[in-house]
Amino acid sequence: MVDAAQSYEAGQHPDMPPPRSEVGVLGWVKHNLFSTPLNAALTILAVWFLWILLPPLIDWMFLDAVWTADSRKECWAKMEEPEGAACWAFIRGRFQLFVYGFYPHDSRWRVNLSFILLVMAIVPVLYDKMPGRKFGLWYAMAFPFIAGWLLVGGLGLQAIDTDQFGGILLTLVIGVTGISFSLPIGVLLALGRRSSMPVLRILCVLFIEFIRGVPLIALLFIASSMLNFFLPPGTVFDLLLRVLIMVTLFSAAYIAEVVRGGLQAIPRGQIEAADSLGLTYMKAQALIVLPQALKISIPGIVNTFIGLFKDTTLVLIIGMLDPLGIGRASLADAVWAGLAREVYLFIALFFFICCFSMSRYSLYLEKKLHTGH
Amino acid sequence: MTDAVAQDEVRQPTKELTVGEDIAIEMDGVHKWYGEFHVLKDINLTVKTGERIVICGPSGSGKSTLIRCINRLEEHQKGKIVVDGNELTGDLKNIELVRREVGMVFQQFNLFPHLTVLENCSLAPIWVRNMRKVEAEEIAMQYLERVRIPEQAAKFPGQLSGGQQQRVAIARSLCMSPRIMLFDEPTSALDPEMIKEVLEVMVELAESGMTMICVTHEMGFATAVANRVIFMDFGEIIEQNEPHEFFNNPQHDRTKLFLSQILH
After folding, report:
1. Does B76 touch chain A (CB under 8 A)?
2. Nearest CB to B124 within list A278, A369, A373
3. Domain extent listing, chain A
4. What is the pLDDT of residues B101-138, one digit of tens each?
5. Which pLDDT value is given to residue A373?
6. CB contact under 8 A, B73 and A373
7. pLDDT tens digits, residue range B47-68?
8. Residues of A in contact with B118 (CB under 8 A)
9. What is the CATH number of domain A89-369?
10. No. of H helices and E strands in chain A?
11. Cβ proximity of B180 and B102 under 8 Å
């Protein structure tokens, strides 16, 4: 048995296990929750807060909540006291509206199919250990076009007007399109802004600065009203398409700046090494510079994506019915009026789940790409 | 002489090093400016195949700039540089052609940190020479064995010591089977105990008949391997000679001053 109190000849000291109070659950609690008096006080305060807050919240949201009813009155009648708990019956009754908007009933299978195809497209992009990932990626690149055809119709499918898109469907259409197109456009803009060709550089700078200098709402108004003035009379240019373009360009400008930050962090020596091996500019960027720059930029890129996803709610202002718009419209229904808390909580939950998943995925990606330098 | 220690540590080549007849690099009246600053002044230098040239001089003397002009990492503004029969002009295709034949090793290694050692080495053969992946990796392993770190192939550069990284960098250049190798202070960023392993690889490379230009202050290496030592100061080639004469019988005052400073 080794004994820490014992003394040893120089160079003879054996490795010993750490003291018991420094490892295991006890060590973790000591180091993380009670390491200093302030930390201990904060721990106790936090526990106290949760103690007060959680039980009534759980009662309101789940235990006392009413899940089936046909009107607000019926809902409240089922409670011990009116407004004393959540009336999820309202959300249940309107659930289809929240998901599909006014998409025609007999065509909703197309939306469902698109959701399934979306999941199938996301998996190979996010998960690199998938067998046959290469085909998955090709499919993911084709997905926006397949989904576009499925949702809008034409070419053998009944055409559906994009005014009828709404709810979560609309959010996902704008969010997924914005995210998947703004990244490549943003990367090109960032490279253009660092280009040694002055004309290209100035064009990119002007574009980025203009888009960043104008609020998204203003761009959406331009999309909804002004764009018609610039187009030849009689051209039909779908409103949703215009919004998609604006949202994509808006987010691309931000992505460009985030990626530029990443590009600047790559030491000059990396490009010199690539050059000295005979790689062309494009190959050096694609194989050496961008993989490193994008890795550094992940937190900023995901931050921009999360912002874009939440900004999709702004389309409400130009009359499109995203979940928030559907929620407001539903609250105008006299049978249900007064249930704002339930509606907004539900919408908040939907956005939180989407955004939090993106955030967790970005953390996973950062960890995975870390190569110890 | 200097560092008697450093000199002892460099292995003497075991076979006779010869110089060929063909001209590998020709620099004719080359000038370069950084803005107003005249970095290279009328550089005339002819390098034959198989030559091992060591360039030394105080910092800021233009020695790094000179070798960086040879693979056009720096552009010269006046004069002519011909590498392996190709003149360096603004023509991008030509520059890429030259860079394929000229390997370069940097002071800061400049390995690609997001790729494994093997990927670092096989990248250029695959993407520049359009080699198949299997074949490129075979060649990469061959050179990693030559620099004696095949067991590190699957690691990332960040997990290696400085000396190991620099040897990988040498292997990476060699994978393109260059005809000329440029070394820009390859041992200056290394801890003393790692300098030897890198110099050993360079001596071996000289034995294989490679045309080499090294910017270095490793005088032990210069005496063991170089057939010519060039001294630069203020952007000019002040003096050049074969190593023994250069160290023992310097002609120019500035050379004497420099040697007295580095050879304590």
Report:
1. no
2. A278
3. 20-63, 89-369
4. 999 999 999 999 999 999 999 999 999 999 999 999 99
5. 55
6. no
7. 999 999 999 999 989 999 999 9
8. none
9. 1.10.3720.10
10. 16, 0
11. yes
